[in-house]
Amino acid sequence: MMKSHPNGHLSHLNRTDGSATLSNEGYQVVASVNGPMEAQRREENPFEAIIDVVLRPLAGIGGTRERQLESIIERALRQLILVKRYPRCVFQVTLQVTQTHRGDLINDKAVQAHKKLAWVASLLHAAILALLAAAVPLKEIATCVVIATPREAMGREPIRNPSAEIMSKAKSLHLLCFTTSGALLLAESEGECTLEEWDAAMCAGRATCCRQLPIGEIGPNVGLTGV
Amino acid sequence: MASSTTATFVMPGDEIDPSLIPSHKKLPLRLGPGLRHVPPNKIVPVIAGQIITDPKKNTIWVENAGGRYVPSPGDLVIGTVHRSTMDAFQVHLADYSAPTLLPHMAFELASKKNRPQLPPGSLVYARVVSARKHMDAELECVNPTTGKADGLGPLVNGMLFHISLGMSRRLLMARPASDGGVVVLDELGALGAAFETAVGRNGRIWVNSESVKTVIAVGRAIQAADKEQLSVEQQKKLVRKLMKDLS
């Protein structure tokens, strides 16, 4: 399968404060950001802004799985946005999937999110691009990568940004997200792996996301709990 | 626009090259929008954009044309009256943003007997007095030292057009044509269109004229120059075409 480069468009939606489209490997997301807006009375926080992530799948409205992905993305974005600057406000991040892998269609019908890790990377990248377009104050930006640990027969090296085919055959999948300063922002895993394989995946992820940093300056493993 | 010779673009969290930060013998360094000071001595960008410095005023900021308006003291804005409470109007500066307060007494010649009547939906040209994050922002339509309106107050008739924050900042510069590169209004005036405008820092421009055709032409010209990022030459061409259609 040929690898295509990620492709993005910024600020193409007129009625939002910031928007971005990201297409990567046959998967396309349109992200829009509105904010800081006035939060509804019952959900407002008097000390910081709330972040409202809405994920819309290719077909239909979101279900439980979309809610789970929303909460993962919300927790990651909360660390990046300067929420203390905007008390009683809300930042609304809407992510609409407009195109998906062939493999995600069952009988040519779109199904809801089930291969979640591969999705989160694209969703998060699209959300961050839209936040940049909306000039939302951010502490840092973050990049993420999917790492596949192959089965014995396919070699031992972790594979970065694997294709859908490799993902379906991999022993375990790891989604790793690092900020500009090299701190670990998000780590979600699927499948089973040994501690050595996890370390190898972390190394590969860090090398991909924090390429500009010298090795000595890469930050501590903050947020490693709950992996 | 005061700018360094080469454009430097930054992303949030990037390190700023110390050589870019201006230094001055007397004035303290002032950080503009898009930068934050992380104690003790780090200056970190919080938005993506071009770094602009003004060595004379010893200021540095990040320029980004997008985003939603957040009130800041001293800004001239065009607000929409939402409703009137006991002693103030609730005014919206952007759709769905938190309302700001415009006291009934903050108008020229306003008194308890003679308070301004502004029905919901009317437009006001006002100045932001205070904007603190834990309080509603406050507006005024009068200069508190002289008691004069200085051009602020209700905007009657005319039409409101939405533009980007970057475009409204360019229009509000002392010399929009030479500093901001916006010649649309000057050209329209030079070719004989008669109209008046008020530019709000919150991405709004109000246009009024005797003829409705002129109002729409002026508004559309500004919006086109903004959206398509037209150069000075392209703006002149657009205006000539519009004026030909008008007459």
From TrEMBL, chain A:
GO cellular component: cytoplasmic exosome (RNase complex); nuclear exosome (RNase complex); nucleolus
InterPro entries: ExoRNase_PH_dom1, ExoRNase_PH_dom2_sf, PNPase/RNase_PH_dom_sf, Ribosomal_Su5_D2-typ_SF, RNase_PH
Positions of the Exoribonuclease phosphorolytic domain: 11-134
Keywords of the record: Exosome, Nucleus, rRNA processing
Top-rank taxon, per record: Eukaryota
GO molecular function: RNA binding
UniProt-annotated location(s): Nucleus
GO biological-process terms attached to the record: nuclear mRNA surveillance; poly(A)-dependent snoRNA 3'-end processing; rRNA catabolic process; rRNA processing; U4 snRNA 3'-end processing
Record region (Disordered): 1-20
Pfam families per record: RNase_PH
Record Gene3D superfamilies: GHMP Kinase, N-terminal domain
Stated family: Belongs to the RNase PH family.
UniProt-recorded name of the protein: Exoribonuclease phosphorolytic domain-containing protein
TrEMBL record, chain B:
One GO term describing the cellular component: nuclear exosome (RNase complex)
Top-level taxon: Eukaryota
Domain called K Homology: residue spans: 158-213
InterPro entries referenced in this protein's UniProt entry, alphabetically: Exosome_RNA_bind1/RRP40/RRP4, KH_dom_type_1, KH_dom_type_1_sf, NA-bd_OB-fold, RRP40_KH-I, Rrp40_N_euk, Rrp40_S1
Domain Exosome complex exonuclease Rrp40 N-terminal: start-end pairs: 29-68
Name of the protein this chain belongs to: Ribosomal RNA-processing protein 40
Lineage, uppermost ranks: Eukaryota, Fungi, Dikarya, Ascomycota, Pezizomycotina
Major location category of this protein: cytoplasm
Family to which the UniProt record says this protein belongs: Belongs to the RRP40 family.
Key words of the record: Cytoplasm, Exonuclease, Exosome, Hydrolase, Nuclease, Nucleus, RNA-binding, rRNA processing
GO biological process, any: TRAMP-dependent tRNA surveillance pathway
GO molecular function ontology, one term from the record: exonuclease activity
Pfam families, sorted: KH_6, Rrp40_N, RRP40_S1
Protein's cellular compartments: Cytoplasm; Nucleus, Nucleolus
